[in-house]
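Notes from the 1:1 (GR / supervisor)

We went over the backlog. Supervisor wanted to see one worked example end to end before approving the batch request, so GR pasted a single chain during the call. The sequence is below; no edits were made to it. Supervisor asked that the structure be written out right there so they could see what the output format looks like.
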Amino acid sequence: MNTSELAFVQGMDDTRATLRRWHAAPLSVVRPWALGAVGIAVALLAAVWIVAHAVTPDPTGYVVAGVNAPAGLGAVGHVLFRNSLVLALHSMACVAGFIAGSSLPQQAENHRGWWRTVHEKAGPAAIVFVAGATTFSLCTQGYVLGSGAATLAAQLHMSRTGLMVTLLPHALLELVALFLPLAAWMLASRREAWNELLAATAVTTVVAVPMLVLAANLEVFVWPRLLQLASPVL
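Structure output shown during the call:
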């Protein structure tokens, strides 16, 4: 068995052992992830609120299913597709953390010379890259969502804050689901428990998917009703 195969087998063994340990007390495992995801979601919503007050609304307007576009399963599918890309990015951060923090160091022990140096340096470099890519994603989401909120508030003659209140039922649920893998990554990195990240990827994704389905349905079928109640022009 070569070094890569040995690292893979060890990773699978660590993942199975982690899942068995978590199965004994699932709430104690998921609770810190959920609290971390809530914290990130609240921070992003605060950034969206700040951006919404800082940018100039787009005069071309904004399309919302159930308001000025059809509301149906197609709209739900569009929301789910958009959110699945973000969830995949955050889940891949967990996988990359496992490779960088667990797999590569194991392989480095079986190499010598410059090839060992490559394996030793690649792990920290990959972690820095993942952290940078995730930060870029959060900043981009904050700006895009804030710009959209400013445009929609102007379009519906609402205050930015009032619009943000109507967003909360689906947006908070959606963002918590999307940030579960990121919260797991952050907590594992603090403990340097890189060998747990494959298990964390699987568990957070399984938990996040039904939350995203519910959030998409709330966005398409419930949010327009809240906008109608809050907007003087609907």
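Supervisor's comment: The helical segments are 3-24, 26-54, 73-108, 113-155, 160-191, 197-230.
Batch request approved.
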